[in-house]
Specification:
- The protein has 3 helices and 12 strands, in the order H-H-E-E-E-E-E-H-E-E-E-E-E-E-E.
- The chain is α+β, with helices and mostly antiparallel strands and 224 residues long.
- The strands form 3 sheets. It has an 8-stranded mixed barrel. The chain has a two-stranded antiparallel sheet with strand order 1-3.
């Protein structure tokens, strides 16, 4: 009989002792790993959900937006979208469109029916910047009045009010700053802890023309 066969025969004759010792070693090793927190624990349903939210991506060659990445808790916030914007100094009410597509063709198409809330910007019940763009034109005759939607916003002054209306509420903003800028120099931060509004003239989402920018801060809300 070979030495290998003798070794196997010796183990087999003490198989129950061998299995018992093996079980004790396995149990001891498992308890040791648990004690040093090496074994992963299952995810609890009550654990805090955290995600990385990229607030905006690049928009168009003619208008840049900051990409702000932050670790935030997921919150249940009802989405409140604008339906109209009323500019008191200009005595003008304009329909607001809320397209979900980010393509230049779709955004430009929406501008034919009013002004457009950029789909990457905040909604009205959310902290951040509501970013609305609209056409302006000083031609004596236009076949679509929406080409002159934001005519005159360059004449707004600090303290003027702008109302942005949803289906059930009015969000009142106070003008803080009005300026003209080259499109390629404009950066609109979308995220933040404040409730802000930025409106801008826009010949096309892909254009690099100069545009007028109005920055405002929310000061009140009213129920319709």
């Amino acid at each position: 009989m070979t030495a290998k066969s003798s070794f196997i025969q010796a183990i087999w004759s003490r198989k129950f002792t061998f299995l018992f010792v093996y079980f004790l070693i396995f149990l001891f090793s498992y308890l040791l790993l648990v004690a040093i927190d090496f074994i992963p624990e299952p995810i609890s349903e009550d654990s805090e959900e955290v995600t990385f939210v990229e607030e905006v991506v690049s928009t168009t060659p003619g208008l840049q937006t900051e990409v702000i990445q932050a670790e935030v808790e997921i919150e249940e916030v009802a989405i409140v979208l604008p339906t109209e914007i009323y500019i008191e100094r200009l005595d003008k009410t304009i329909d607001v469109l809320n397209p979900t597509s980010r393509t230049i063709a779709d955004l430009d198409s929406a501008l034919l029916d009013g002004v457009v809330r950029h789909p990457d910007s905040a909604h009205l019940a959310q902290d951040g910047n509501v970013f609305i763009l609209g056409h302006s034109s000083y031609l004596p005759n236009v076949f679509n009045e929406n080409f002159q939607a934001f005519n005159g916003i360059q004449n707004l002054e600090w303290g003027d009010t702008i109302e942005v209306r949803s289906d059930g509420e009015v969000f009142v903003y106070r003008v803080e700053k009005v300026f003209k800028a080259r499109a390629q120099d404009v950066t609109v931060p979308i995220a933040g802890d404040d409730k802000l509004l930025t409106i801008a003239t826009c010949n096309s989402f892909g254009s690099t023309d100069d545009r007028y920018i109005v920055e405002a801060r929310q000061i009140d809300t009213k129920v319709l």
